Amino acid sequence: MLIIPINLGNKVPLYEQIYEYIKREIKTGKLPVATKLPSSRNLAQSLQISRSTVELAYQQLISEGYIESIPKSGYYVQGIMDLIQITERKKALGKEKVEKVERLKYDFSPFAVDLSEFPFPTWRKLSNQCMNDMNQSLFLLGENQGDLSLREAIVAYLHSSRGVKVEASQVIVGAGADYLLVLLSQILGNDQIIAMENPVYKRAYRIFQGVPYPVRPITVNTDGISIEELTRTDASIVYVTPSHQYP
């Protein structure tokens, strides 16, 4: 059994602690190539945490090539890591070079926040208001699908901005798209075929492959995903990014 030291009081999310530990064990050779990792269920029981937390860590390792998921067999350390370790070792032995990095004027990272436009005073005011009005509830375990008032606000926004008719019970709030995709795959089951835009959001693609789902790439035109091409596939589910096509 894999013994992973996790700190429940740490600000680092549990799935990230698991991910970092396994990645470090692989890169240092303590988990050799072809080593079978414990199932997500067994590891979750051992650590006394949610199974979805372990699965999210595993999906992150799969997306970065550290491990692979073999259907009806389990999770195994990837052989490709041998090449990565050799490359890193050669770099370490070589002469260190200090290169001048040009500072970019604009940050187009999809994970960044424009701090120059962030309303810090408003955020601080609302945070203080929440702490004063309902400070006790902030330290309690919330609803599994996310705070009801937040989900109701999302429903109202979707109706007014997109014309989407949805109920609060159909909305799930989670810590990022990757985490929610893992949860979604658990809800949908394994007998699905996914159609995705091409080019595609790479992390979502790797998560679907790790389930594993067969993926059907669909061409994107000026109007978005090609409906004509989509209808010719055997896909049962379509994953799209209609607001901001990625990449």
From TrEMBL:
Domain HTH gntR-type: 12-80
Keyword entries, A-Z: Aminotransferase, DNA-binding, Pyridoxal phosphate, Transcription, Transcription regulation, Transferase
Protein name (Swiss-Prot/TrEMBL): PLP-dependent aminotransferase family protein
One Pfam family from the record: GntR
Family membership noted in the UniProt record: In the C-terminal section; belongs to the class-I pyridoxal-phosphate-dependent aminotransferase family.
InterPro entries, sorted: Aminotransferase_I/II_large, HTH_trans_reg/aminotransferase, PyrdxlP-dep_Trfase, PyrdxlP-dep_Trfase_major, Tscrpt_reg_HTH_GntR, WH-like_DNA-bd_sf, WH_DNA-bd_sf
Top-level taxon in the UniProt lineage: Bacteria
PANTHER family membership: HTH-TYPE TRANSCRIPTIONAL REGULATORY PROTEIN GABR (PTHR46577:SF1)
Any one Gene Ontology molecular-function term assigned to this protein's record: pyridoxal phosphate binding
